[in-house]
Amino acid sequence: MKNLFLLTFLLVGVYTVSFGQSDDKVTRMPVIDMHVHVSKVRPGSGPLCPWFLSDMPGADPNEEFNFSNVFNSDCLDPLPAAESDEDLKNQITDRIKTLNMTMVCFGDPGVIRSWMAEVPEGRIIPGISPGQLTVEQFRDSLESGFYKYMSEVAPQYQGMSPSDMSLDPYFAVAEELGIPAGIHMGTGGNGMTNITNAKYRASLGDPFLLEDLLARHPKLKVCVQHAGYPMIEHMIALMGAHAYVYVDISGMIWSYPLDDVKAYVKRLVQAGFGKRIMYGTDFMTWPRMIETSMGVIEHSQFLSADQKRDILFNNAARFFRMDDSDFDWPQ
Ligand SMILES: [Zn+2]
Which among 37, 50, 36 is positioned nearest to 255, based on CA atoms? Predict the structure, then answer.
């Protein structure tokens, strides 16, 4: 009996150390993840090493492309993929509760609602992209009040500039309704554009391509998703010219070489934009990606405690015009 008590004590102790808090007691400061993709579990997803693009293969078009050379799991502690829809929901909603997180989620609306049912109100902020919707359908969706974010708009994967006029009516609706827009800029390709996505163009991730859009919609608030990585000079110039341009550091934070990720974030802060950088994961299917990505900010020695709080929480709360009363705080 005594041993059982000791075992229980140890297990509870380990749980508390790993997750920081139980459901009813808030011990951690709130964190907002700006970029969470929501879908049913993708069959066949294996484990993945964080910063998996650190050692790109020297491949040859006359040989068969080895995808596992890019999406590799050959590291000390690869991150496992969620095993089922239920497992995915449990792992994410547990993190929302125990890590005191709010997640900005976009993708399958049915799955988003099933996650929302498991967490306190307001902890999931739903987003929607135009996708196949008509402009009127898109307006109706935003006017319903359910969606707070236009995301993820990813014209780069379609070989299109974000300032392409075919997208303009959708951005006009977002501007009119005061809904911020998240636009994928920069990352992608992963060395296999010719094989998996022939329309993708690295050049269409250039942050300068946003300028015509911003000129047409001076009240549109924009998040450049993935921070235009690796086009730092143009990103800095764009942010310098436009006060309503923010960035999220999702995706790049766990996929490109860690030293380069840190150098990129450091450069943005150094250039004066510490109040417009927002933490995000670009979560897809590997739940531990969340604490792995958060750790990059939490353990960055070049950031002050205040700068870390800005990136992990304050900037995103301000981006959505939310305030402290919308969140739970340690007592
Ligand atoms: Zn993206």
Answer: 50
Ligand 1 centroid, distance to 303 Cα (angstroms): 25
User: How much is the pLDDT for 70?
Assistant: 86
| 28 CA from centroid of ligand 1 (Å) | 28
**Number of helical (H) and strand (E) elements in the chain, helices listed first:** 13, 8
C-alpha distance from residue 263 to each of 109, 234, 244, 267 (Å):
36, 16, 23, 6
Helical spans, DSSP H, in 191-257: 193-196, 211-216, 232-241, 252-255
Q: How far is the CA of 297 from the centre of ligand 1 (A)?
A: 20
Cα(6) to centroid(ligand 1), Å: 47
Enumerate residues 6+ apart whose C-beta is below 8 A from 169.
135
d(CA 129, CA 138): 8
* 223, β-bridge pairs: 182, 246
What is the rounded radius of gyration, in angstroms, for the C-alpha atoms of the chain?
20
Return the structure tokens found at 233. Answer: 């000079």
Give me the chain's average pLDDT, please: 92
Q: How many angstroms does the Cα of residue 127 sit away from the middle of ligand 1?
A: 13
pTM of the predicted model as reported, rounded to 2 decimal places: 0.91
| In the predicted structure, residue 331 carries a pLDDT above the cut 90 | no
Single-letter amino acid, residue 204:
L
pLDDT digits (tens, 9 = 90+) for 50-84: 999 998 889 899 999 888 888 889 999 999 999 99
Query: How big is the chain, counted in residues?
Result: 331
Alpha-carbon span 105 to 108, nearest angstrom: 9
Q: Which residues on neighbouring strands pair with residue 33, listed in sequence order? A: 103
CA of 186 to the centre of ligand 1 (A): 9
Angle of helix 135-143 relative to helix 168-177, nearest 10 degrees, comes to 20
